[in-house]
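Bench notes, afternoon.
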Amino acid sequence: MRRNRLLTSAAALTAAAALGLAVPRTAVAAADQQACAYVSSYYRPTLGYGATGAAVSQAQCLSNAWGGQPPKLTPDGVYGTALQKKIEWIQTCHGLPESGVIEGRTWQALYHPALDCYVPYPT
């Protein structure tokens, strides 16, 4: 009987995956990241308010992988208040210091977003 339940569960999971019903959030984030090709994923300079360039566009694009309340940003290459507010929120979600500066650990969070953030996005 136990073996039948295992086989039934395995068949249901296989069918759900085949139909696209069980797509992990990380797979969705990976697809979003592929659309972000402003710079190499290995190029991770320190960025702060007022910075400009392709790396800022990359950060703006990667920040759009976060669903829910955070606004989607247009990758215009200018680090303004909207990006700073979003970066601070992302840092909070990952337990990082809320500095608004994009550096090593923040780049890591952008490339590997948390599955869920229980901190409400500031209004």
